[in-house]
């Protein structure tokens, strides 16, 4: 099946540092999404990317849709303690038969810890 | 907007018991998804519906799992009989879009944490 390889698996950083994580796949995706999950909650959408090469920002977060359509990265600048959580990439593409559009595949997640 | 509402938030049951998880999607969203999250396997798509119709249930682990969506505002995921390996957090998500031209951006509920003893 479609696999998304997300790295790193975990990060321990100091407050104020920048963070970078990425997601790669052997398959082409039409949409890339980045979600954040806080403990005891469901994933919350951070950024959505719809076109190859697209670079989108949301406050201190910046994400890019890779030119090859097989990768994406997320950067967090000047991290703060509330950035702690699990970050997931997710990719969306139709099935090969073109009849099913709903399958959103998730990466394994990056656990971010920010030390004050 | 109340978001996606799931119940119960926590459920502890004994092996062999029936478990029913409930979901109310965001009003106006026509796609609904059930995911399961575990440490070992991450987020797995179990089944999804479009306009109340199940589209793909290939992620449902086995016949003990079933899902229904009797109307646009309600869905259930049932496990009968439950087993300890079913212990996980089950998420429901909904989306307003469907089709190749739309981005299927999912909004998740807070999840139902199931523990089967």
Major sheet description of chain B = 7 strands, mixed
Supply Rg of chain B. 14 Å
Described by strand count, sense and barrel closure, the largest sheet of chain A is: 6 strands, mixed
Helix/strand-derived category of chain B reads mainly beta
Strand/helix succession of chain B: EEEEEEEEEEE
Q: How many extended strands of chain B?
A: 11
Mean pLDDT score of chain A:
89
Distance between the termini of chain A: 40 Å
Average predicted confidence as pLDDT of chain B: 91
Q: Number of helical runs of chain B?
A: 0
Percent in strands of chain A? over 45%
Low-confidence stretches of chain B: none
**Number of DSSP strands of chain A?**
11
With helices defined by DSSP (H or I, 4 residues minimum), what is the helix count of chain A? 0
Unreliable residue stretches of chain A: none
Would you kindly provide a written description of the structure presented here, covering whatever features stand out?
The complex is a heterodimer of chains A (116) and B (117). By secondary structure, chain A is mainly beta. Chain A contains no helices and 11 strands. In chain A, the strands form 2 sheets. In chain A, strands 2, 4, 5, 9, 10 and 11 form a 6-stranded mixed β-sheet that branches. In chain A, strand 7 and strand 8 form a beta hairpin. Chain B is mainly β. Helices cover 0% and strands 53% of the residues of chain B. Chain B contains no helices and 11 strands. In chain B, strands 2, 4, 5, 6, 9, 10 and 11 form a 7-stranded mixed β-sheet that branches. Chain B has a 4-stranded antiparallel β-sheet with strand order 1-3-8-7, with no helix packed on it. In chain B, strand 7 and strand 8 form a beta hairpin. Chain B is globular and about 35 Å long. The model of chain B has no long low-confidence stretch (mean pLDDT 91). Chains A and B meet through strand 4, strand 5 and strand 10 of A and strand 5, strand 9 and strand 10 of B.
